[in-house]
């Protein structure tokens, strides 16, 4: 029997199917468009791309899983010159370079007094319920650009919560922005603290956390290797490594250093050890519960900057067994942190994770030199003395010279009174610096905009320059020249790949997993997170959302 369907009947059935299909799509849209309940923003201090890639095969915990299942960019390179903690974190969360957000370095020099200040200094907002060290970081008043935290708070009309945690104030403050909460480790008391900018009293969850005295509890612990010795690459006891805080150069490391009780000296060793990772994870878990993060339909953010890796890097170098073990233990700690965040958000489908780093870092220069690399340790104090002598000889007056990384600050009565031509002095200083064996180039601030871009290194200096805070003369060191006034260990401050190249990972709701080998700029991190949160970008952002991480192409 042949079944015949009339044209009118077919049209009605087709319309019905179309209507049902449209309704199905419309019903699905709210669930797809809804932003994640919780964003976990992770920064790993001093985690350069090279460091991560060398150790990746051994990472099987939280960090390893992020790399395997997220949108992973091995090669993100900062476009500004100074590879430092404060500007790096500010760039990650504003999507802007220092010429816009104003955070040019960890420290700046006050031209009026010659005093070196931490960049987030704010005497009007002291540390809450603790002693405030002079000229120390306490508030975001000097941060000129809107952050992810600020944008989230504005987008949700103050309903979304933001909590930022770190061992360093200069990391926690930019992560919290102006409108979130920032908590950091106080090296005098061994507790997590904040300033009066962020709180008028210490909330119950922080009081309970501090009552556990986790830093004190680690005083009797010994930092042992996590894995068998044969799994570590290179030598443990290297002659170029220092005896950091009395911990010794080789494993195991005691945190006691001959002390009879925990205190400021033992806290320094604690900060270097991976036990500091565990404290931040416990603080994060306390914040998740205490603030109820991820518990409703309004997006919240928890930002955690792990500083222990940077402390280990400075003391022992990026190729040390200590750095290898610190990463292995961070891998474990991140697994615990991510599990806690998933639980708080009500499942992985409600969680977005972004991970990056503020900078990489150089090997201990003496170790490089022993391997045949043209490396040297450059003491900025000695360079400043030599430059001051040169200017005194040339101009017949005293000019004070202070060097902070790549910035040279000039001062003194002769300059301030106009007794000598400031432009001439600055140009003479730049000319002398450019001729030094450790330098590629140098430029006076007066010539920065029009200077010939030697080897493409003037452009990073421009992006990192903010007139009120940067130096009078900027210089660029050659590769493998480590600028530091410490006689041991190592440092970071230049835009070469071993210091400026960092990983970026996005994972969770709305992310297309994969490994993306194109080089990106960390200014893209904040815009990409903004897109995944279905909100506008921070006001001064220069970057753009990484479309391939959202669409897979």
TrEMBL record:
Signal sequence coordinates: 1-33
Transmembrane domains' residue ranges: none
Q: Does the keyword Signal apply?
A: yes
Question: Is the keyword Oxidoreductase assigned to this protein?
Answer: no
Keywords (alphabetical) are: Metal-binding, Phosphoprotein, Signal
| Alphabetical list of CDD domains matching this protein | AP-SPAP
Please name the Gene3D superfamilies in this protein's record.
3.30.1360.150, Alkaline Phosphatase, subunit A (3.40.720.10)
* Name by which UniProt lists this protein: Alkaline phosphatase family protein
Highest classification ranks of the organism: Bacteria, Pseudomonadati, Myxococcota, Myxococcia, Myxococcales
């Amino acid at each position: 029997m042949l079944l015949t369907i009339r044209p009118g009947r077919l049209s009605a059935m087709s319309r019905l199917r179309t209507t049902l299909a449209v309704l199905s799509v419309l019903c699905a849209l709210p669930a797809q468009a809804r932003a994640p309940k919780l964003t976990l923003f992770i920064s790993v201090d001093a985690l350069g791309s090279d460091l991560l890639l060398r150790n990746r095969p051994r990472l099987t915990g939280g960090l390893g899983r992020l790399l395997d299942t997220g949108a992973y960019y091995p090669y993100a390179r900062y476009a500004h010159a100074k590879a430092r903690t404060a500007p790096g974190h500010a760039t990650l969360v504003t999507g802007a370079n220092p010429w816009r957000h104003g955070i040019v370095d960890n420290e700046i020099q006050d031209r009026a007094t010659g005093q070196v200040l931490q960049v987030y200094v704010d005497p009007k907002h002291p540390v809450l319920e603790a002693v405030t060290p002079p000229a120390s970081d306490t508030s975001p008043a000097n941060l000129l650009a809107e952050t992810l935290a600020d944008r989230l708070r504005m987008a949700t009309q103050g309903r979304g919560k933001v909590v930022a945690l770190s061992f360093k104030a200069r990391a926690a403050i930019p992560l919290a922005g102006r409108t979130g909460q920032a908590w950091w480790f106080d090296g005098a008391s061994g507790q997590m603290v904040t300033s009066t900018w962020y709180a008028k009293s210490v909330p119950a969850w922080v009081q309970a956390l501090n009552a556990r005295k986790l830093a004190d509890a680690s005083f009797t612990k010994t930092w042992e290797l996590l894995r068998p010795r044969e799994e570590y690459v290179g030598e443990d006891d290297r002659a170029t490594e220092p005896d950091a805080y009395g911990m010794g150069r080789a494993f195991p490391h005691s945190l006691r250093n001959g002390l009879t009780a925990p205190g400021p000296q033992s806290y320094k060793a604690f900060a270097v050890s991976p036990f500091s990772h565990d404290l931040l994870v416990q603080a994060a878990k306390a914040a998740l519960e205490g603030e109820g993060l991820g518990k409703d339909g309004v997006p919240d953010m928890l930002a955690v900057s792990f500083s222990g890796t940077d402390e280990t890097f400075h003391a022992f170098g990026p190729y040390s067994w200590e750095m290898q073990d610190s990463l292995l233990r961070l891998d474990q700690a991140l697994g615990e942190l991510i599990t806690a965040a998933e639980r708080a958000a009500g499942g992985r489908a409600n969680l977005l994770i972004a991970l990056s780093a503020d900078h990489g870092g150089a090997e201990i220069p003496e170790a490089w030199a022993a391997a045949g690399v043209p490396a040297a340790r450059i003491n900025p104090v000695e360079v400043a003395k030599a430059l001051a002598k040169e200017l005194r000889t040339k101009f017949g007056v005293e000019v004070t010279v202070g060097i902070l990384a790549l910035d040279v600050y000039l001062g003194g009565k002769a300059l301030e009174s106009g007794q000598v031509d400031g432009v001439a002095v600055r140009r003479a200083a730049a000319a002398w610096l450019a001729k030094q064996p450790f330098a590629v180039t140098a430029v006076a601030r007066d010539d920065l905009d029009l200077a010939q871009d030697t080897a493409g290194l003037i452009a990073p200096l421009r992006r990192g320059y903010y007139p009120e805070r940067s130096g009078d003369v900027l210089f660029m060191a050659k590769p493998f020249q480590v600028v530091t006034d410490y006689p041991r260990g190592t440092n970071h401050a230049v835009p070469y790949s071993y210091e400026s190249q960092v990983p970026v990972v996005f994972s969770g709701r709305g992310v297309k997993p994969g490994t993306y080998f194109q080089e990106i700029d960390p200014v893209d991190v904040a815009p990409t997170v903004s897109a995944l949160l279905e909100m506008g970008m921070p006001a001064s952002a220069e970057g753009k959302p990484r479309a391939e991480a959202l669409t897979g192409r």
